Every structure is written in C-alpha cells, then in structure tokens.
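From the shared-data thread, chain only:
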Amino acid sequence: MEAAQAAYSAGRWEAHHSGDALLRLQALAARPAGASPLPVPPPAAEVAGPAEQAVPPSVVAASLRSGLAFYETLQAPDGHFPGDYGGPMFLLPGLVITCHATGTLDTVLPPPHRAELVRYLRNHANADGGFGLHIEGHSTMFGTVLSYVTLRLLGVPPEEATAAGARAWLRGHGGATAIPSWGKFWLAVLGVYEWEGLNPMPPEMWLLPYALPVHPGRMWCHCRMVYLPMCYVYGVRGTGPASPLTQALRAELYTSEYAGIDWDRARSACAPEDLYYPHPLLQDAIWYTLHRAEPLLRRTGLRRRALAEAMKHIHYEDENTRYVCIGPVNKVVNMLCCFLEGGPECAAFKRHLPRVADYLWVAEDGMKMQGYNGSQLWDTAFATQALLATGLAPEFAGCLRRAAAYIDAAQVREDCTPPLAGFYRHISNGAWPFSTRDHGWPISDCSAEGLKAALRCAAAGEALAGPPLAPQRLFDCVNIILSFQNRDGGWATYENTRSYAWLELLNPAETFGDIMIDYTYVECTSASIQALRLFARRHPEHRTREVTTAIADGVHFILRAQRLDGSWYGSWGVCFTYGAWFGLVGLTAAGLTWNGCHALKRGVAFLLERQNVDGGWGESYKSCQDKVWSPLPDGASHAVNTAWALLALLATGQAARDPVPLHAAARCLLRMQQPDGDWPQQQISGVFNRNCMVRLSAGCLRHSPDRVPAQITYANYRNIFPLWALGEYRNVFSAKDS
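Structure, as tokens:
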C-alpha cells in the first residue's frame, strides 16, 4: 500500500486519476491459498501480424481469458464490481463542514479517515497552490477556498506547505468574497461568511403553484434536490458553532478585515476563474428584489410554512432513499437540515450518519467523496454484457451468476411513497438505478442497460446465468422506459423534461450550467432503443405498437442529434468516441443498415478519419469543453476510447467493408494489456452532467473555450470495454473464418 501511495504521489502530475491499486491489492490478497496462477495474456510476438490479417481467434481468446480471470478477482461477494468513482473536488468540503457544524467530525471521520482525506487533498493540489473544480481542473476560487478550509478543519496548520500554497493562491486572487454562490453557502454554514452576502435562496419558492414553469418541481432532480435543503438552511440561517478555528479562518480567508467587508457587494462577486455562467441582468434584478424582501419574509408566517414544506420534502427524499439521497451534495445538506430541525438526538439525523460511508472511497491517492454512492449497477450491467460477448461464459459461470444475482437484487421493485405527484416524483417500479436499490432513483439508461443485461442472461440459460427474471419484472421495466420518452423522441435521465430551456436564465450557480431542467441525450436514447429492441425480440406480443413507435421516434432524435461532421457529442463520457458508440449502435439496433442510412456512413467516416497510426483512438477531455475532436498529446491511444470505437465499427458491419481498421484496433488493445491481464488506468474517460459548455454574455449564448467539464473516474471502464470489444471482434472474425 505504501509503495502504491508513494508511486501515485511521485507521478501525480502525469496521472491524476487513481488506478484503484489498493482495491487490486486487496482482491489479489483475498485469493485462496493454493489457487492456480492467473492466466497470462498472449506474448507480443503472437499479437503482431500483417495489418490485413485478422488476429487469430486463439490469441484473442487467450487475452480475454486472462482479462476475465483478473477482473473476476475484483468482483464483490454480492456480484457487483466496485471501483473508484471520484474526481470532483467540491464534494468533500461539504461533508467536512457539515460534520464540523454538527459536532460529528470525530465519529464520522475518525483519525485514520482524516489522514487519508488530507493525503487526497495534498495529492490534488495544483502546481500554483490552488485547487480545481475536479482533479484535472485549473485552480479556481471555489476549489481553492473550500479545499483550504477542509485542510484546516482536518487539523492541518496554515503554515503546512499545501495549506500555505492554497492560502497564498486565494489571497492573491482577491480572497474568499469572490467565491461562487455554492462556496458562499458553505462558508456561511461554517460561520466564516455572513448570510447577507448570499443571493437569496428563499424556501417560499416551494409554495408556488406547480403550474408555473419556474416551480422547483419542474427542475432537473439533481438541481432541485440540492437547492431544496440549501433553501431550508438559508431560511433558518443555519450556522455551526463559533470556535477559535472559525475565528482564525475569518482572518485567513480574506484580504481585508472581516468586520469591514461589504457583504451586499460581495453577493454577486465571483472570481473570473469560476465565472462560467455570468448572471444575466434579469437574474440580478430578481436577486436584488428578493434580497430587499428577505428581512420581511423572515418575520412572516409564510416563512414558517415554507420551511415546513421544505422539510417535508427533505424527509421524503431521505426515507425513500434509505438516507443515501440522490447525490453527495444533497446528502450532506439534508443531514445538516435534520440536525438544524431536531438537534443531535434527531432520529433522522442519526439515520444519516452511517450512510456517509456509502460515499467514501479510498485509493492510492487518498480518501475521497465520490460523485455518487458508487456506480455498482451501471458497471455490473456493462460487465455482464461484456462477459457474455466474450463467448467464455461457461468458463466464468460463477462470475456471471453472481453478476446476474446483483442485477436481480438491484432492480427497484416499488414506487416511492404516495402521492408521487405531491413530491414531484416519477414512477420507479421496474427501474434500475445507477448504483444500488437502496438509492432507488430510476434512470432511463441504467434501466435500459439493466434490462439488456437481464435479457442476455436469460438467453444464456439458467445453467450459466441462474434463474431468469419473471416476465412481469421485465414488463415493469419496459413500462418505465416508455414513460421516460420525451416529446422530441429522445430520453432524458431521471425524469421527463418538465420545463423549458430558457429556465437556464435563472440558473443561480455561476460554476455549473445546464442544470435547471433534464435534457434529452443521445446516450439515454440509444440505450433505451437497444433495450426495447432486445425486449421486443423476446416478447414480441407485449405492447407491440408502443414499443415500435418509441423506437422509431428515438431513431429520429438520434438522426437529428448527429452533427454535420458525422459525430455525436457524448455528454457523459469522453466524448465523440462515446457518442459514436451510442449513436451508431442505437441506429443499427433499430434496424438501420449501411446501404439505407447515410447517417451510419457519416458516423463511420468520422471515426475512421481519427484512427491513430497504432490502430487505436485517443481522445482528450478537451473534446468535451471545446466541442471539437481533441486528440491526446503525441497521438497516444486510450484503451477505453479504442474499445468504444471498435464496438461502434463492428456494429455497423465494418468487417464486411474493410476489416483492416478493426484488426489494427484489436491489436492496439492487445498490446495495451498488462502482464496480469489488467489494462492501464489512463486519462479521464467519464464526465459528469455535461457541465456547462456555453457562457451567457450580453444576453446571448456563446461558446466558452476555457470551460473544463467535471470529470469522473470510472475505474472499471478500462476492464469492461476492452473485454467487450475484443469479445465482439472475436465473434465476428471467428464466424467469418468458419
């Protein structure tokens, strides 16, 4: 462990994302004594060959066998595949501040935890002393101030190197009055910023009629579930206890005396490094009016009603997610709300405490708060499909049965507590969540991938995959997938799109964009089409017309979403290879063919034009921010990008047209495989929420070239997708040979 930690710290400027080395050490150490050695990948001499010749199926099989044997060691006893889902730097400070404010820092984060949290922060400080929004991001006031405060709350003295560098950066950039609104909120909770310095978050908005397009119930669920508890804390001015440390921070965070700060002026102050979404004049006028009305609102019965309404929704969210909550931000703010309402003995607050651990992950770079409570179902559904694609399921039947059992257990089997409409919730019975059944929020593409995995396990037979799901459970999932479809033919994430894009004009978060409503995505649409098509083949009699119409409408959305250069923008992965995989596979799953679909030809041409000389593809996260193809430096190839591209090309029938690019891609993946069967953890392959790629200026939307999207470490992708792509490659060329 110490060697892995030291190696990470030494190379942290080149490799920001952890390789999940501690999990791998733990998994290999847990292998039974006397177990057979893991099979090794084929030697380089067997991988090499003429470009025009296919890789021999026996060589691919040896690679797959080695890769699956290694990956099986990482499988948890309940069948899921655990992994690092970290990356954002703004999550951990909220947890530490909440624990400090509620007096639970020592119990929730005991000394060993705190030591690893400090390691994480030290490892992800930038060379200029600041911290970014995420671990590969440039320094921002948001990231730097909150990370500095976190270090201090964890016991790091201000003169320690990392803390001193962060303090110098923030003071050199104007001090903490220039932190964005979410940062202002957390500093006010800590007691080192005045509530008068925040733009209003009035809880009274929860009393508005739902018919209004600005009602919070019409917002994207992640947005409303964050601002719901925030507005409660704002409404009660929830501040932690004063202490010598908070007094010291008041002096350390600002460039002028705390007592002399103009808080009204500070309300709209935001450092240029953080200002990705400047407020339009309309929004500033609204905030000014609400700010002037706030003293009156605080003295009325309307405020009491609004606070009671907000807490009703907070408790509903807590109870229906077993106190996991939809995400890490609202998790800790909900926990704070329960403490503010009922004190340390509050039953709801006590139920929150043990579920903090759901969000914590430790790797060689330290302990972090993940972007979700994990990606258990998502990764396991993909891993199951990859395993089945290899053709080696009989050799790994135990692994397959455990994965199928997890998929069975993770399906949501009931709706939330009624009335759903009263709490602005979508149906959830039959859905699959991103992580766990306890979490329970239904998501369109997670439901689709869960359904696909379940159907493919059933097709493999009970002897290999265990008992299939009952038909009614499949029908329930189809029902929820159909219910997610929007009027434009596409699918959004957690719910239907409930309001209008112009609602972004009221987005109060300077750092995050595209958060106000649930948008339609190519990835969600493609996954839903694939699942419905696979289901229709097995159950052609069930809701035939609805399924057929939904698929056709989804195809039209994917066709409209294709860009002029033939690409699809990937909103949840990096980026155009991810979009191409979903776009091309979605169209072919719906029955479109090469000869009859110009979009397929354009999409394939886009990929082939960007293949590297070594046969792979390598795409930088800059593609996400700039919305144009951005290769990795020096033409490097990335195992996950290469696998996505190979899967997309295989699905379109490239083997029958010109197989040479496929042979080159397969050899590239085989060369990347490590001696133990693993693949390397390379640059970022996941992004979170397609964060704002546009900037609002002078009343119009324009491109923001300096926007760096929030990135997520999908540690399992490096295993899942090379296995899946090589499995499909072997299937195609074994069939051609036979």
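The two ends are 48 Å apart (CA to CA).
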